[in-house]
Amino acid sequence: MEINIPSIEAQKRFIFEQATKEAIRQLEQNLTAPVIEDLGMDESQYSNEHLLPENRWKPPHQDIVYAYIEQFKRHSEYKSDKAVAAWLGMRGNNAERNLRAFKTGESSPRYGIWRKLLVATGRVPQEIIPVVAFMR
């Protein structure tokens, strides 16, 4: 009996295609997310540069950071600073303390961490990077 196994390259391509289809499904599902309007602050009093792409981005004001994180905690399964920090990909013993430092203005979040929160809260669209080629 002969078992025909696809090449490693064919397997990689299959995995890429399946992941892309799943990403498309998730993007379509994202369009049906509920609208929640309970931020508890007037954002118009602050710059919106924290919403811009990385090459034009400026770190958010601590009031914005605090309000966005607290709103996210109220409406997600991540109810604590520790859980939010882990979800954002912050690692190590100081992750929770670092998140609190963002909320108090002691430090500013890195772009990637902040952008993940913005995408998850529907404030900016998910960035889709084009594939130039399948390079080997």
Task: Detail the topology: elements first, then pairings.
Elements: H1 8-30, H2 62-75, H3 81-87, H4 95-104, H5 111-120
Helix pairs in contact: 3-4
Question: How would you concisely characterize the structure shown here?
Answer:
With about 140 residues, this protein is mainly α.
What structural class do helix, strand and pairing data support? mainly alpha
Q: What is the total tally of β strands?
A: 0
Largest sheet: none
Tell me, briefly, the overall form. elongated
Report what the structure shows.
Helix 3 (81-87) crosses helix 4 (95-104). It contains 5 helices and no strands. Helices cover 47% and strands 0% of the residues. The chain has 136 residues and is mainly α.
Question: Which characteristics define this entry?
Answer:
about 140 residues, mainly alpha, 5 helices
